[in-house]
Amino acid sequence: MLALLSAPWKVLGQTILDSLYVVVTIQPNGDGKIVEKRMMHVGQEGTELFIPVNRLDAQSRLSGFKVFDEHGELYYEYVSDWESLRSRDQKTLKCSIVPGDDNSFELCWGMGHDGLRTYWVSYTITNLVRSFSDVDGFKRELVAPGGFPLPRYTKVIITKDGEELKKEDVEVGGGGFNGDVHFGNVSVVAESKIPMTENDSILVSCKFRKGIFNPQLVSDMTFDEVYTNTPLPHYNNIIGAVKTLGTLAKAAVLAVIAAVAALFAFVVLMKRKKETNK
């Protein structure tokens, strides 16, 4: 019994991502070097894991994708012809970038053996920070919805390469998940202490004071002008609207049912009064 309780992922064949740590180190030119540490229980079912990177800017590029083992030593071989139907054995120690629509991608790698696992994943998003007429900054999902598996605990840290960030140098915001985005001691931190759902994402907005970075991508518009007119990488606002409309629709249906019930009761009462008066 104790064995069953201690290793439920083996019994159920489930893969569970206990903790996800994402560190984004912004380079002087605005590129974002990203390292993820994924601590999980790998079940006996399934063949691969993947990270969605949704809707990159047209001027941004995804590069340098690498996967390492628990010790950061065993390097996964990059293959260009990733095939989802291959077996777990065929995908072991292999990784690939699979392109999708709207300049979106999936970072895929083989699960390998089951049990307690830690995967180190690294990649770069070029031109993450761009220069606007008022500030330098970015606004995007650093943990996108739809990944596998979903994290139970998530922490995203945004730092500057070689130097500490100062609170007065950055204005932060975000959303899309149950948690908060704030400035820590020397970095921007987004943290979710409860399991994320399939529609959750960690969307982070950072406005940096001019002069901290030297972005290669320059716009003559303000930060707010660009991101007000640009759809977010995912459809969190639409999903929220659908949920709201769904709630309103449900409330409307209940109101109609209540009105019909009241009308029926009134008709019955009037009928009884007529019968009494006869």
Structure explained in plain terms:
The chain has helices spanning 2-6, 8-12, 88-91, 223-228, 236-277; strands spanning 16-26, 32-42, 48-53, 62-68, 77-78, 94-99, 105-110, 115-125, 130-131, 136-143, 151-160, 170-175, 180-183, 188-192, 202-208. The protein has 278 residues and is of the alpha+beta class. The strands form three sheets. The chain has a seven-stranded mixed sheet, with no helix packed on it. Strands 3-7-6-5 form a four-stranded mixed sheet. Strands 9-10-15-12 form a four-stranded antiparallel sheet, with no helix packed on it. The chain is globular, with a radius of gyration of 25 Å. The protein has five helices and 15 strands. Helices cover 22% and strands 37% of the residues.
